[in-house]
Amino acid sequence: MKENVPDPNPELLTAKLLLSEDIEVDEEEFHHLNNPADGIKPIVKKYLGVPNHAEQKGSKFFFTDGDASIEVTVVTKEIIRVRLAPHSVFLDEFSYAVPELPTKPVKFTLAENELEFRVSTEAVNCHIRKQDFFISFSDSNGVTTSSDAAPMHWEENVKFGGYYVFCTKTCAPEESFFGLGDKATEFNLRGKRLKNWNTDAYSYGWNQDPLYRSIPFYISVNEGIAHGIFFDNTFKAHFDFGAEDRTKTSFWADGGELQYYYIHGPHMMDVVKNYHILTGTHPMPPLWALGYHQCRWSYYPENKVRVIANGFRQNKIPCDGIYLDIDYMDGYRCFTWNAKYFPNPRKMIEDLKANGFKTVVIIDPGIRVDDNYWVFKEGKEKRYFCRRSDDYFMEGHVWPGRCQFPDFTNPEVRTWWGGLFDELVDLGVAGVWNDMNEPAVFGSGTFPDDVRHQYDGFRGSHRKAHNVYGMQMVRATYEGLRKQLKNKRPFTITRAGYAGVQRYSSVWTGDNVASWEHLKIGNVQLQRLSVSGISFCGTDIGGFSGEPDGELFTRWIQMGTFSPFMRAHSAGDTKEREPWSFGEPFTAINRKFIELRYRLIPYLYSAFWEHHRYGFPILRPVVMHEQGTYSNHYRQDEFTYGDKILVCPVLEPGQTSRKVYLPKGKWYNFWSLEMTEGGQEVEVATPLDTMPLFVKAGSVIPEYPVMQYTNEKPIEEVKLNIYYSDYEVNSFLFEDYGETFAYEQDIYLEKKFIVNGTATSLSIKQSMEGLYTPRYEGYHLKINGLPFKPSKIMADGKEIKEVSVNADKTYEFKFTKNFKQIEILK
Ligand code: GLC
């Protein structure tokens, strides 16, 4: 190993030696910790030297310079993991993000020549350069996709032990970057420097960083080829995408191991799917969770909750979920009820249920210090609360006053916590909302660094556990609910999270503001969360703090109709904020869009299945459809919802029309059915009662009848909206019971439709997989965009005679749900 190795790039070396210019390791803390004036050792900066030895153990390869080593693991054909051990002793292999590595055998080889060692699979080569230990990756065509711009390096952390770890890669002139979770900035992260440290960021602004979640995963797209880097490190981590130096991309962390996964594309979609292979997907949610949800801080007393619920039914605005914020508790003590406001929660929850509402309650991590409070007493007796380094309790003020905090990184604590939900479940609570779990503490922001965590046996300070605290809290919640609900699917929502949190929860983007700017931020945040593994996400519709006017609220409802999680929420000191609060014309438009949400539930549910089973994100930014076109790297307003519906929220007040880019292919305007050739921008009228929506030609969009809540009535028939195309297009419809885990035993139906047309015909074929039988018998088919007048419609060899012909040249008829092929002939 060499110290301060002469760098091939002198500019870089200067940058590396000047700590203040180079790294943002919380400079104050870093200097304090490592300052010689404090009598502590000076900074030791070390780079990997020259690899002089290579060794293979199974699918792992070790390369060493005599002191430091790196490990290269072939994880799958497309995924290679790299780890660094400064003195060749690797840390224990444990990750909250990646519960286990895929075990499917992969073919790989190790080759060596004068210049390099090379580990190769069928898809990727990992090159380890002999001259300087630079690591690079190339695809099977030999195109280099990622390469080091400096050898990996590290600096000792004198106070805590361990190292600050750094990795610097090149950044190409037109390279773009996406991902990193919920950052409130442009969708393309090129030119940004960002930090991961879960933060309670009330009323955050554009470019504010960090926010509530830490997802250390990014996707690069350069010259049409995508790859991903997942830096699985839970410490405070930093990313620089050509901000300090246009030619370099770097990531570093204040501790832990320099460990990252290189994830090969070549498409962004491949990268995201492979990232899901590592970190998992969201389990299927209960169907009702895809409906509209109403929340406020807080609806109380009980009568207020009933009034709101009735308001939905009276106004005929569909709604499935109603939320109780912290005021339902007794002095904000978790797992208690305020007897004055909610004297009989069981009865209230039952009545709400009879009226079609599921009740969701908030639970925060802070447990009030109070010896007369059973949760505190139990936690204290069992030593489940976090402690400082010298064993003092970790205490801090949150809503209940002085609190202690369970150590959710301890599996025993998680089991205990999960068990605490039994009473709420028994009362009929259907979902749990986890908040303040960054963890947030008034005054200090969060816990001090020295708080200790059990970390599933791989102990660490808060520096290591901070970013996973919220994820482990919602994991405890999800796992507890899963046990108590027997075979029913839990519904959970969390504010904080780390990579992989999607296995346990949906996510909302925290305390946003009722402003047009925040509508834009939310639109970008949801797309970004979606490509960062978190598909089940939504914003506080209307904005949490501040007051939206009717127009802003309605535009937000429109965007929310196409957010995988759709919930309106507002702070308590704001005006009433229900979909009917703004009067007409807003109420009618809000109703129209919430009804559209319910009509499209089978479509969203199918997109969810595609996410759960195959790792597709639900929201797909334009660049994901056409990454080869550079201008698309900067498109961030429009996205597809699933892969068939293109959505472009209206993000400006008073807007009467706006430009929308349609990816290549043919698109139907959802409202007018006018067909437009894609690959171009079009100007779309945006009167308040519509928003730009387009459907891809060849799609089959399934639709349920509008109901006031999911499962209000049995479905008697499913409508299939079929959009003519002259090329072949596949669509899916997923169906099951909607509330159990029977799908894990193959009790579901995955239907595939293939649509293909010519100048004189249109054919729709259907095939099915799975063991579920829906109760309805038939389909109501609607054919849109047919370029000819049909003379005959044949379904499985029989002619259909009863066809309604509409003025807009659409055709409607009914047929059995089990059809194999329908042909429409000129
Ligand atoms: C936090 C949450 C917000 C909630 C409030 C009271 O600010 O982000 O959603 O309403 O706490 O519990």
TrEMBL record:
GO terms for biological process: carbohydrate metabolic process. Keywords: Glycosidase, Hydrolase. This is Glycosyl hydrolase. InterPro entries: DUF5110, Gal_mutarotase_sf_dom, GH, Glyco_hydro_31_AS, Glyco_hydro_31_C, Glyco_hydro_31_N_dom, Glyco_hydro_31_TIM, Glyco_hydro_b. Coiled coil: none annotated. Residues 283-607 form the Glycoside hydrolase family 31 TIM barrel domain. It comes from Mucilaginibacter pedocola. Residues 615-701 form the Glycosyl hydrolase family 31 C-terminal domain. Residues 70-240 form the Glycoside hydrolase family 31 N-terminal domain. CDD domains: GH31_glucosidase_II_MalA, GH31_N.
